Amino acid sequence: MSDAVLGIIGGTGWLGDGIAKAALASGLLSVDHLVLSNRSGEGELAGCGVRITTDNCELVQMSSMIMLSVRPEQFDGLKLDAAGKCVISLMAGVPASRIKAATGASVVVRAMPNAAVEIRRSFTPWFVDGELSVADKAFVQRLFESVGDAAEVPLEDHIDYLSALSGTGPAYPALLAQALTQGAIAQGIPDSIARRAALGVVVGSAPLLAERSAEQLIEALMAYRGVTAAGLQALTDGGFDGLIGSAIQAGATVARKGM
Ligand SMILES: NC(=O)c1ccc[n+]([C@@H]2O[C@H](COP(=O)([O-])OP(=O)(O)OC[C@H]3O[C@@H](n4cnc5c(N)ncnc54)[C@H](OP(=O)(O)O)[C@@H]3O)[C@@H](O)[C@H]2O)c1
């Protein structure tokens, strides 16, 4: 169990709540080493003894590390004084320099989890702007490992790029599932069967990727030179890789421009 006291501003939102619950469940933090804030002072974890406050200044004073889990447009309204402390920001498109200038934090960690924190299957890249001790880095890594997999990245720009890649979580699979479903329905497949077939592809078979690399799977399936190979070839010929690349670049441009 860590000695750190983590304060999560926005700690009852989608990501904040998922991280708070996972940090407790993993044993990384005890209830008296976790403080949450929101604008109502109410939240599920109050029932377990976690302090939930509406006073962000109180949260900052009580915490050795402060996580910002509010939406980017809510950041300017916070007016925090975290001088000399470490601030971990989950906000997309808000640079570390802006967070340092607004809060006085000596160290800013920018991390980019995704919606899969809810099921503890997020991939979370994180970047440190400033000097963070080995022990504090280990804490950050363990914190994000409590909601899945995590890795430190060497450049802040990697966070902006990865905001558009892993930060999007289920967005691209959801779009694929929708396209597969609608395509099948358009071909006369009954709605419920089309949905189950599409989910079978996107959700059911996807865990195979944890056991074999994407390259291995594609090579093996292309080798049959049959139905799957024809579909994959049509996507490749249609510029699938370029389209995916452009999609991620479009998102990264928004993140780099700032929000
Ligand atoms: N969701 C994702 O998939 C995802 C992925 C990557 C990155 N992110 C980033 O993660 C951050 C959080 O996203 P989210 O999806 O968890 O948002 P969210 O569910 O809207 O949570 C934000 C929380 O902030 C609280 N809040 C707002 N103003 C506050 C204030 N002045 N003081 C204290 N708490 C305040 C809100 O609670 P009340 O309304 O009760 O005050 C709300 O629960 C965002 O910056 C986003 O860019 C999200």
Layout of strands and helices, then pairs:
Layout: E1 6-9, H1 14-25, E2 34-37, E3 51-53, H2 56-62, E4 65-68, E5 86-89, H3 96-103, E6 107-111, E7 122-129, H4 134-145, E8 148-152, H5 156-164, H6 171-186, H7 191-204, H8 208-211, H9 214-222, H10 227-237, H11 240-257
Helix pairs in contact: 5-11, 6-7
NADP nicotinamide-adenine-dinucleotide phosphate (NAP) is lined by residues 9-10, 12-16, 37-40, 56, 69-72, 74, 77-78, 90-92, 112-115, 167, 169.
Task: Record keyword descriptors for this entry.
8 strands; 259 residues; Rossmann fold; binds NADP nicotinamide-adenine-dinucleotide phosphate; alpha/beta; single chain; ProC C-terminal domain-like fold; elongated
In short:
The protein has an 8-stranded mixed β-sheet with strand order 3-2-1-4-5-6-7-8, with helices on both faces.
What does this protein look like?
The chain is of the alpha/beta class. The protein has two domains: 6-158, Rossmann fold (3-Layer(aba) Sandwich); 171-257, ProC C-terminal domain-like (ProC C-terminal domain-like fold, Orthogonal Bundle). The chain is 46% helix and 14% strand. The protein contains eleven helices and eight strands. It has helices at residues 14-25, 56-62, 96-103, 134-145, 156-164, 171-186, 191-204, 208-211, 214-222, 227-237, 240-257; strands at 6-9, 34-37, 51-53, 65-68, 86-89, 107-111, 122-129, 148-152. Strands 3-2-1-4-5-6-7-8 form an eight-stranded mixed beta sheet, with helices on both faces. Strand 5 (86-89), helix 3 and strand 6 form a beta-alpha-beta unit. Helix 5 (156-164) crosses helix 11 (240-257) and helix 6 (171-186) runs antiparallel to helix 7 (191-204). The chain is elongated and about 65 Å long. The mean pLDDT is 97. It binds NADP nicotinamide-adenine-dinucleotide phosphate (NAP).
